Amino acid sequence: MREISYSEAVKEAMTQVMREDNDVFIMGEDIGVYGGAFGVTSGMIDEFGPERVRITPISEAAISGCAVGSAMTGMRPILEIQFSDFVVIAMDNIVNQAAKMRYMFGGKAKVPMVVRLPAGSGAGFAAQHSQSLEAWMTHIPGLKVVQPSNAYDAKGLLKAAIKDDNPVLFYEHKMLYNLKGDVPEESYEIPLGVADIKREGKDITIIATGMMVNHAVEAAQQLEQEGIDVEVIDPRTLVPLDEKAILESVKKTGRVLVVYEAVKRGGFGTEIVSLIAESDAFDYLDAPILRLGGVEAPIPYNPKLEKAAIPQVSDIYQKCLELMNK
Amino acid sequence: MAREVVMPKLGATMEEGIIVSWLVNDGEFIEEGDPIAEIQTDKIVLEVEAESSGHLLKKLYDAGSTVKVHEIIAYMGEENEAIEQTENSSESIDNKLEESNEQGKVRKTPAANKLAKDNGVDLSLISGTGPNSRVQKQDVENYLQQDTSKITPLAQKMVQDLKIDDKDLIGSGQHGKITKKDVLSAVSATTSSQEVESTPLKKVPLKGMRKVIAERMSESYYTAPHVTMTTEINMTECVSLRKQLLPVIEKETGYRLSFNDLIVKAVAHTLSKNKALNISLQNNEIHFYEEVNIGFAVSLDEGLVVPVIGNTDQIGLAEIVKRSKEIVANIKSGKLSPEYFENGTFTISNLGMFAVDSFTPIINQPQSAILGVGRILEKPIVKNGEVVINSMMQLSLSFDHRVIDGAPAAQFMTDLKENLENPFRMLV
Amino acid sequence: MSNELLFQELGLDNQDLKKMLYDMILIRKFEETLKQLYQQGKIHGTMHLCIGQEATAVGACFPLNNEDKITSTHRGHGHSIAKGTDVKKMVAELFGKVTGHCKGKGGSMHIADMTVGNLGANGIVAAGLPLGVGAALTSKMKELGYVVLCFFGDGATNEGAFHESLNLASIWKLPVIFFCENNLYGMSGSITEMTNIESIAVRGSSYGIPSETINGNNILEVIKATQDAVERAKKGEGPTLIEAETYRWEGHSRSDARKYRTREEEKEWKKEKDPIEVFKEILISNNVINENEFIELNEKAQNQMKEAVEYAENSDDPSIDTLMTDIYA
């Protein structure tokens, strides 16, 4: 197996699909020779040229609307938003246009587009460049929301997202870009809506998203010393959500910790908790469901505060001890 | 305005009572004087009666709950009347519900709840190890497993003696451990292992007085190592004394002197000189009593009660006659005042009215000794080398060998025989 | 207009001229120091340096008094210094210290100081324009008399917010100056590829706003254009769009290989059009300063930076419980 980085895996997915399908193109700010703010698209312009690797002005409202328009008329655009925070400038086109078009036209349109969104904190980019706003998107019917936590998933999920006939918000974590992992060279897809058990266990189910999946696995390894056997579930896609996998795991362990980087209040983990509480897995719960999320504050600049603003491995470790009543 | 039904204080020493059973359901109408619930003190089972007619609005405790005296156990009032509760009273009610072993009020996780439900386990019997004593799934699992380590050594021995299947037992001790008490209640209930093949005429649940007796008897039998000594008493002198005293005492008290009264008098007199038997074992402490309070067993349809005559050694025969007759009359007419049953230090069980010569009585806990009295029978005996016909009676003393050795017990029997065969001495 | 004539027309006194030169030098020293500290790993996150653009910041802020306001951008260190923001607290903020302007919570992209009319740097491209329009609306409605100068880059002019703000300010005749620092590149996007017009200034006409393009590396031109705009605004004649052509010597941020432009182009700007050199020449030829004084100004700025860094390094980190403060008023 070949090791490549998360960022290379994202690029490889786009590259492979673009070779197969001429309707697929990518647009965004600085994605040409600059390679995008995080270098994900570096070199793509050399292979596909400026027509298909389309550098745009700093015009999120326009380029997102343009993506919708081109998608409903037969193209399959990939839109890179430089920092996921800037998607709010494109919100009208994503929420009021892309998400609703098929429905309100009675099925007469489809909007096959992917919006790539580098998100998350940890790089010292402060309040306007570090948010995790995926929950906003999960609230909107008509959108799909994907959040890969490693290189292998990133490649397979992005392929599936590009081939999906619906608008897909693809959240990449900027602190994961350099994370290397085993990624096969050949083309493969990971269907949307299929969770992955990142680690099997019998005592606690941690449902984590994005960067937190990796934190959770690390905490689980530490908890082994304590004789606590933690299962880590990575939903991988928030919409559609693999409810079955989550509930089965909960039934197995009876203890649940949901971990997400976004602000705890109203984050998507809240939805996962509700799902469990409303399901027949409720009867298997042997402890209150716990949540770990970001503090209800903007992301601060100071590195210590920045770390304190989101769940760390040690927080997950502590919560698990709490769940085991230790 | 809703009326409160409280746990009655049925005796000076009563601090709490157990609600044995509710006799009416919420919403049901009760006539004044009708029983609402059966209450058990440590002595007896009694009924709480409605002070006035009305509907039972709400029970605050389930059967089996232990409640302090004067605490509200239910509300009565007009049909569908709302119960006016001050903030305090509603709070205290909630607390009571919390304290009572109501299944729905036990803190438990959904998983524990489901497992308990699936296995028909009463969650109130399990002490939770989770936060705030929350019952966790593991607690229920432990409880269900109940391997031998989940049973106290004593209970284990009892189980072996009784040939009970300990799977049938429900542990109420810490972490669902089976204790002596659990074995006793299992024994007093009809155990499945002992079930008779044939169809019974009827099945009556073991409850109320019968349940109390069952529990107390088996507890006594299985905790106190019983030793029974028997001796034969020549009652000829007692027979003639009774003949002489009958009219005297009847004139004074209006009651007839019975042999039982004489025996009570003799036992009290003997016990006052043999205080080593006037003791009880409670909570690993031996209590020695100054007062001699003799109890005597009285049979009722519902079961057996043991009223007590206080300071028996200090009162005359006439007083004994008067008190015992009054107590029995009251008891038989249903007036079970708890005072009748308090502070006994020794019990007499007299079966002399039946064709019983002798038997081995079971000690009435927490007392340490009981005297079984057989019938008086004319028998040929050898006296001074001659065969004569005398009135003979057998006495059996069962005593708790943990606290009473053979010698003091034998001394007591010897003195008692002496006193009964020379009853005039007692009257001096 | 030649520099000579312009110099005379402006009629600035020597103190002001020296102060402006010093501010430009200080901005450069500030950015060079920061770059060093960043490379040493003493500062985390990111920063966008404005070396080469000192004249626009200092020149545009010169006609503003303390009550006048600015809104700034991700490349805002120069604007802050030119508007009189405390440099020690700026460095402290970049160090993430509690003594910083934002108590260590904002960092490079969010430095603000209301006491000197600095409404803050902004990490969202073109976000400062509508905010500036709003601040100008306050001034108008409350008759406070101040003007607002919005700094933004060429890249921002393709955001909807730019166009909408210009239109709004124009119809309401708000006292606002839209000051575009056209440094030719929006990150890696060359202005020639990102717009299809000769100049950004022509966009003003769509909204009925007087506009001009100036040499942003000649501080005299910057002062002149801004002074005129401020005057118009204070007279109630509404907004102005100024396009100041300049160049950033460094990459967009700390992770830019600058593949989108040639090294020749960079050299030309650095050698021929260094705004500090241009201004120094003007001042020397007008006998305002001499070569020695220039060296002294450089040393003074260097010392001020040294003090600021010491102040920052000796300051405390914010305590963890400040994580949850200042979220709501």
Question: Could you characterize the architecture of this molecule?
Answer:
The complex is a heterotrimer of chains A (326), B (428) and C (329). The model of chain A has no long low-confidence stretch (mean pLDDT 97). Chain A is globular. In chain A, α10 (268-278) links the parallel β13 and β14 (290-294). Chain A has twelve helices and 14 strands. Chain A has 326 residues and is an alpha/beta fold. Chain B is an alpha+beta fold and 428 residues long. Chain B is 31% helix and 23% strand. Chain B has ten helices and 18 strands. Chain B has helices spanning 87-99, 110-118, 137-145, 153-162, 180-188, 208-223, 236-253, 259-273, 317-332, 406-421, and strands at residues 3-6, 16-22, 29-30, 35-40, 45-49, 54-59, 66-68, 72-77, 226-234, 279-282, 285-288, 294-296, 298-299, 304-305, 308-309, 346-350, 369-383, 386-400. Chain B is globular, with a radius of gyration of 26 Å. Chain C has 329 residues and is an alpha/beta fold. Chain C is built from 13 helices and seven strands. In chain C, the strands form two sheets. Chain C has a five-stranded parallel sheet with strand order 1-2-3-7-6, sandwiched between helices. In chain C, β2 (148-153), α7 (160-171) and β3 form a beta-alpha-beta unit. The mean pLDDT of chain C is 96. Chain A: Residues 4-179 form the Transketolase-like pyrimidine-binding domain. Chain A: Keywords: Oxidoreductase, Thiamine pyrophosphate. Chain A: This is Alpha-ketoacid dehydrogenase subunit beta.
Rg of Cα set of chain C = 19 Å
Count of beta strands of chain A: 14
Low-confidence stretches of chain C: none
Strand/helix succession of chain C? HHHEHHHEHEEEHHEHEHHH
Main β-sheet of chain C: number of strands, strand sense, barrel status? 5 strands, parallel
Unreliable sequence segments of chain A: none
Cofactor (chain A): thiamine diphosphate
Pfam families (chain A): Transket_pyr, Transketolase_C
Keywords (chain A): Oxidoreductase, Thiamine pyrophosphate
InterPro entries (chain A): THDP-binding, Transketo_C/PFOR_II, Transketolase-like_Pyr-bd, Transketolase_C
